[in-house]
Amino acid sequence: MNDAIEQLMAEHRLIEEVLGSLAAFAESLDPDHENARPTLSAFAEFFREFADHCHHGKEEDRLFQAMARHGFDPSMGPVAVMLHEHEVGRQHVRRLAEIGGRNGPLTTSEADRVRAHAREFVPLLAGHIQKEDRLLYPMAVQAVPASEMEGLAAEFETFERTAIGEENHARLHQLANRLIQEFPPEQTAPSPLSGCPSAIQSP
Ligand SMILES: [Fe+2]
Ligand SMILES: [Fe+2]
User: Fold this and answer.
1) What separation in Å is there between the alpha carbon of 107 and the centre of ligand 2?
2) How far is the CA of 59 from the centre of ligand 2 (A)?
3) How far does the centroid of ligand 2 lie from the alpha carbon of residue 58, in Å?
4) What is the mean pLDDT of each run of 10 residues along the chain (203 residues)?
């Protein structure tokens, strides 16, 4: 497997763990707990900075652009579906961040909304990751010449170093590990996805 794709798939494994952790947090949410809002803000920060800015930045501004040069129109088909799912996920994270950023203990209705967002966002992003691993990335490897894929791996490194920063990147990994330790994901087998391209359906 190509370095760029390996890097994206390694990021998927961390994102999956934090998704499991968010589900555990949301389902055990105690509105009276004084750390409920800061913890929610920490989850939102991880998904905004690592999953979106860093990981989706590599996909949207680099991998999908390379795919577009080799026949994958970003306005339709599988890349359009991925872009749409990124945007829906962003909206959930924004709502979670808003609730996390307020003062005082969570109200019951806020706790209900956190659970509702988590119940939509976690399966959305987990399913999205499965589609990329099993369908979209293999399509990219087939379509984009190996030399261009090697260039992508170098671009990813530069992007990570300059736009994210090594220190910030390490801090986001620490943040993820802290959340996973505090709210361990339930150990369940990943749901099987029918392994055919029709599993990526238009938005
Ligand atoms: Fe994606
Ligand atoms: Fe991804």
Assistant:
1) 33
2) 7
3) 9
4) 92 98 94 87 98 97 97 96 98 98 92 97 98 98 96 95 92 98 80 46 56
Q: How far apart are CA 179 and CA 94, in angstroms?
A: 19
Ligand 1 centroid, distance to 107 Cα (angstroms): 33
Q: Which ligand is nearest to the CA of 50?
A: 2
pTM of structure: 0.92
pLDDT by residue (tens digit) across 123-177? 999 999 999 999 999 999 999 999 999 999 999 999 999 988 999 999 999 999 9
Nearest to 47 by CA among 111, 115, 118: 118
Q: Which residues contact 109 (CB under 8 A, 6 or more apart)?
A: none
Q: How far is CA 188 from CA 17, 83, 112, 192, in A?
A: 11, 27, 24, 12
